[in-house]
Amino acid sequence: MIRLHQFKRQWGMPNPSPFCMKVETYLRMTGLAYEVIEEASPLNAPKKKLPYIDDGEKAIPDSGFIIDYLKASYGNPLDERLSRAQQGEAHLMRRLCEESLLWPVVYSRWIDDRGWSVIKPAFFGALPPVLREAVPWLARRRVKRMLWLQGVGRHRARRSIALASRISRRSPPA
């Protein structure tokens, strides 16, 4: 049986991580048997990131590689009937979500104080008191640096959210 290692569920959602949610949704939609292993930390993961799966002796990290592996190993029931044009549209939507819309979501969760006031207790509230301030501070600093390097972190919240809004309103070419 496939074992999906992902963050703990939050807020009544399958997962707060869009990438963990993507893999679990794929598994549910294909009907593949799987078990969820909730991890508090990604430090034991093969690439130090979640999600990853165990399938027998194989450990597969990264949501994109996981889905590619599942398609190659178990077939492709969701996409096998798509035309080339539909496959292109699906690829476009995946890239839009993963590479354009992801960054404003990360910004709103980790940089904007309103989002951080929800994320900090949800993700770090169960830590022992001695770690409850240091670990979130270090994690937030790391995410801020990542967002700065990506570029979104160089803008104010209003600018980042407006950018995401503009991108999501664009319709694909006819």
Topology:
Blueprint: E1 2-7, H1 18-30, E2 34-39, E3 52-55, E4 58-61, H2 63-74, H3 84-110, H4 113-124, H5 134-150, H6 157-169
Parallel strand pairs: 1-2
Antiparallel strand pairs: 1-3, 3-4
Question: Would you kindly provide a written description of the structure presented here, covering whatever features stand out?
Answer:
The chain has 174 residues and is α+β, with helices and mostly antiparallel strands. The chain folds into two domains: 2-74, Glutaredoxin, CATH 3.40.30; 84-169, no CATH class. Helices cover 54% and strands 11% of the residues. The chain has six helices and four strands; from the N terminus they run E-H-E-E-E-H-H-H-H-H. It has helices at 18-30, 63-74, 84-110, 113-124, 134-150, 157-169; strands at residues 2-7, 34-39, 52-55, 58-61. Strands 2-1-3-4 form a four-stranded mixed sheet, with helices on one face. A hairpin with a 2-residue loop joins strand 3 (52-55) and strand 4 (58-61).
Summarize the structure.
With 174 residues, this protein is an alpha+beta fold.
Instruction: Please give the order of strands in the largest beta sheet.
Output: 2-1-3-4
Number of helices: 6
In whole angstroms, how far apart are the ends?
42 Å
Strand content: 5-15%
Instruction: Name the helix and strand elements from N-terminus to C-terminus, one letter apiece.
Output: EHEEEHHHHH
Structural class: alpha+beta
**Fraction of helical residues:** 40-55%
Uncertain segments of ≥5 residues (pLDDT<50)? none
Largest sheet: 4 strands, mixed
- Average of per-residue pLDDT values: 88
Global geometry: globular
Number of strands: 4
> What radius of gyration results from the CA coordinates?
18 Å
Domain module count: 2
